[in-house]
Amino acid sequence: xxENQNPAPIWSPPEGYIQVDSQLPGVTVYAPxxxxxxxxxxxxxxxxxxxxNVAYNVSAGGIAxxxxxxxxxxxxxxxxxxxxxxxxxxxxxSQARRGWGAQRQVLHCDSCGGELSxxxxxxxxxxxxxxxxxxxxxxxxxxxxRPRFLIPFKVTPQGTPPLAKTWxxxxxxxxxxxxxxxAVRNFVGIYLPFWTFKARVDARWRAQVGYQKTxxxxxxxxxxxxxxxxxxxxxxxxxVNLNVDDLLIPGTAxxxxxxxxxxxxxxxxxxxxxxxxxxxxxxxxxxxxETTLTDAWEMGKGTIREDAKQACYQKIRSSQVRNFSMSADxxxxxxxxxxxxxxxxxxxxxxxxxxxxxNGQTGVVAGSKPVAWWKVWLAIAALLAPGGFLTLIxxxxxxxxxxxxxxxxxxxxxxxxxxxxxxSLYNSARKSEVG
Length: 435
Ligand SMILES: [Zn+2]
Ligand SMILES: [Zn+2]
Fold this sequence. Notes:
Layout: E1 17-20, E2 29-32, E3 55-57, E4 62-64, E5 71-73, E6 86-87, H1 90-95, E7 104-109, E8 115-119, E9 135-138, E10 149-150, H2 160-168, H3 176-181, E11 188-219, E12 224-250, H4 259-264, E13 274-275, E14 285-286, H5 293-315, E15 320-349, E16 352-359, E17 365-367, H6 373-397, H7 402-434
Parallel strand pairs: 10-15, 11-14
Antiparallel strand pairs: 1-2, 3-4, 4-5, 6-15, 7-8, 7-9, 10-13, 11-12, 11-15, 15-16, 16-17
Helix pairs in contact: 6-7
């Protein structure tokens, strides 16, 4: 009689396998747990005491109810610079969480097409991007990736009008009425989407570098030795390694938010990054990225290539370079999707819309301002006048000899100096108008 002395151990499915529906009775089937977007319970933000809507309060650093005084701190999981990044694999994307993790609704602007995520029940009548009131609340599926990190607001909403007032009063070539009549009070705190990239870059360059060579040549006509300089072109090549860290690419489309203004808000102190929690967004607006990860990385690579090119040029010991070519190999690329705090406002001046932004962490203000062009032209005229005047006086004085020539020469020099300063003045005025 054969007896099974060693009964087979009870089989258990490998880790990560779960029991699934079986077609055969009596047969148990296990399959790997399906991977995909994990949906978790969306949180709603109501006061446990009085039921009113609660919001994240910047001064309190937590959730606060303005009706009964209930507060609950958000335990910040500070991750700072060590906030982990993700490799560029389909796996990390498919497993990433989606949505905001809280009940929120989408505000759609019919005028500019901008969309913002707003808290449930929030009353909003204007678009934060274009100040239009053609807005409506829509429901869209939450397909965007969930942010992993954010920097909480440090500047309170009450602190924004004084910052804007100081900023509006800066510069002399704006309309006098601007600082007096315009008060930007409609600032809206928004968590803006950003991608950050890390990468190692190995750049190889090749170029013809020009060097000045001085030669002594015997001139047969004058019967003398003369020195002559000429440029000698030499092919050179080299390698440059760059470590790119925390390269920020805005996730907001440029048509909704001027990237030129946005970049004037930099830098953000990345050491203040905390792990994302929907608590921070309670009562606040947020924007999901409009620029996809792939498109943002293309933009990022463009910026990095430009940096690498500059680094290569610095290795070249001459300022004369021609036929420059460079190949850049990227490795260890990784990304993060983060939210950064900003206040946005748009104001109208004589029918035109101007954008103002405040860095919600540092309080730096940037934006566009109307320009009183008559002031600029008057200043340019004043800059050109001395040189022009001196030259005109110098012309009849040439009849008297050397003094006239001296006056004209000085006049031309002053005129050129005035033109250079005037041109840079014109450029900065134009830039401040556009943003
Ligand atoms: Zn309450
Ligand atoms: Zn709009």
